[in-house]
Amino acid sequence: MQKIAELNPGNIRRYIDRVSGSVRRDFDALTPDPYVPAGFRRKHIVRYIVLERSGDLLELGELPMRPLFQDSRYNPVHGDLHRVYPRFTPSAATRALVEGFVRTAGLERGTSVLVQAQRITCSTGQEGLPSVEDWHQDGVDGVGVCCVARENIQGGASQFKDLDGNLILSDVLRPSELLLFDDAHVKHRVTPIQVRSPGSGHRDVLLFSHGGCS
């Protein structure tokens, strides 16, 4: 995985890797998020624990399913709510991206990782909201966002500001790019997406987090 940018505060790091067709196909099985009644979000989740990490050796174990929970201090829309989602079953290629995140983030043995596969859809006259809570923090230690696909869309810029409210980054994450950041030092959001040409479009991302409420 190649680092292409680094920015402080927030220890925002940008990398590029390869996303294969089998990764993109994993997202076609996602089902609508019941907590977003407007219908533009699809989400499945899975959690892993780092069983072994020594040199090139990395072993992950899948953890039992449990709901997502965020304090309302961090999520004003879905905070204090136990959200139940279907299990995400990644292909071998997608599992390799999870392992790439663990290595790149430097996670040690015993660390648990939440993986969220998320598709935001839009259509003619209907935009999609990647960040329904707008500016926010996640209440975790570290976050990674891997862009898997952008199909017939515009918008969807990843934005970060420091805790004083100063904008420090606003840029579109392209397919195969991975963004890592320290959650405690920045607030973030993704701007709405709209179709580029008439019809439908979508933005697929893998969301990784560790520590805190992950």
TrEMBL record:
This protein's source sits in the domain of life called Eukaryota
A Pfam family of the record is: 2OG-Fe_Oxy_2
GO MF annotations in UniProt: dioxygenase activity
**UniProt name for this protein:** 2OG-Fe dioxygenase family protein
Q: Which organism is this protein's natural source?
A: Tetrabaena socialis
